[in-house]
Design goal:
This protein has about 180 residues and is an alpha+beta fold. The chain is built from 5 helices and 5 strands; from the N terminus they run αβααβαββαβ.
Length: about 180
């Protein structure tokens, strides 16, 4: 599939920006893992796609580097109060729903890959692991950028995307990793 077509699909699904990069240009920083351990999202050790269950920082890095390209995705949301957890959760959910729609389209067009979300997987709430059950959606589950220890600010710079979009705006990032 042509990368311009992939970017066009992303725009059609509502992304503000999309860019295809080589995965070897992604900056990983394992010092970000303690932020997951703080468990501010409540998913640490409670979700198949979150640390420590998802894998070590090195295992997560290698999962991405086993593929040649990533379609980096950005959404921008109006957020009047950066401490409004519900508004932020709603925006992240919108980002991830768009990414899941895009992943489906890309796979239907022969571009196999996997998603890296703006937050941890929420296909099941709560995650099946909390009931000792296997993942219900192993082909669609996704870990967040933080679980992969991706330095998102540097990723945004690499893709010529705004990281800080200005007062009242909040950007979220994700990726579709392929080939």
């Amino acid at each position: 599939m042509d990368t311009n077509e992939m970017i066009q699909y992303a725009v059609e699904e509502g992304f503000a920006a999309a860019e295809v990069i080589d995965t070897d240009t992604i900056v990983f920083d394992p010092s970000f893992r303690p932020f997951c351990e703080e468990n501010l999202c409540g998913q640490y050790d409670a979700n198949y796609t979150c640390p420590p269950i998802c894998g070590t920082p090195e295992e997560m890095k290698q999962r991405i580097l086993a593929h040649r390209h990533a379609l980096v995705l950005q959404t921008i949301w109006e957020i009047s109060d950066y401490t409004d957890k519900e508004a932020i959760k709603k925006a992240k959910g919108g980002h991830n729903r768009a990414a899941l729609r895009l992943m489906k389209r890309l796979r239907e067009n022969g571009e196999d890959g996997f998603l890296v979300g703006a937050s941890g997987c929420s296909l099941c709430t709560p995650c099946a692991i909390t009931k000792g059950e296997p993942c219900r959606f192993p082909e669609n589950k996704y870990s967040c950028m933080s679980a992969y220890c991706i330095f998102v600010r540097k990723l945004a710079e690499e893709c010529r995307m705004e990281y800080n979009c200005g007062e009242g705006l909040l950007a979220f990032f994700g990726m579709y990793v392929f080939r």
